Amino acid sequence: MTELLIALAGSSGVLLATLLLAWTASASYVVATGRAGGDALLHAPRESARLLRQRRRTTLSADRLLWRGAGWSLLLVAALLVALVPWDGSALLPGSLGVVWANTLDIVVWALVWLLGWGANSVVGLVGGYRFLALALAYELPLMFALVAPALAAGSLDLAVVAGAQGTLWYAVWMPVAFAAYLLGVLGFAVLGPPSAPAGRETGSGVLTELSGPDLLVVNAGRYALLGAGAAVAVPLFLGGGAGPWLPGAVWVLVKALLLTAALAWVAGRLPVLRVHRLMEPLWTVWLPLVVVQDLVVAVVVVMGR
User: Which residue from 240, 232, 301 is spatially nearest to 264, judged by alpha carbons?
Assistant: First the structure.
């Protein structure tokens, strides 16, 4: 009984943290687009009320189960990512393969975003879905190699061990390329900022074209939640986890996650959306080799330190 109550309390905490991160991302994104701070704080509830009153759009022969299931699953993936984060030395979903699970969950997003375009039975949506897959492959490989760097330095795939191995020098300081590649990957799987062309004007809103009302609300909430969840996972990977003076470790994890979420959302709102081909070439020819070199540097440092 006690274990069940602890699990319920932990699940509730993860859900609240996911929603708080999503709301922070939404407000920061709105601020970046030029709206006032007070207006930005109320943007999420106002937009939610507006979309809940809006009628759902339907398309001919749409696969509604997969279409709408994919939208809700974005929120589920975000919550699972947050559940992997060790808030005070332990996570709701602890495991020796936390880094691998985080990578697996972001790859699940590939299928979910593609299903948003495919399930609507819409040409524009399907084009957006396939463009997302093409772009995802280009940013995912650098992201995967970026995840290798902190795991290699800590000698573990456990997020709690990775966080604890950083001491006073965060991995973000001496692994800047891996950190930047990871953050670009977060923007990519949240479909926000420069890598958001598959849902942008280039394809007539792409995978979002046929979404409206509650369906669009769920998907947008999922995108902001994924941005916040990706930022939360970055805390044990690159920002020292719960290390910090005076405050408990869990508070430091939350503060760092919120600040990184706000910064990422602000950047996403300020930078223009880049066309897919303009991103793919530098990602394959420049970004990927740089991250591999970063991994080699980390490997040399680890070997020299033994």
Answer: 232
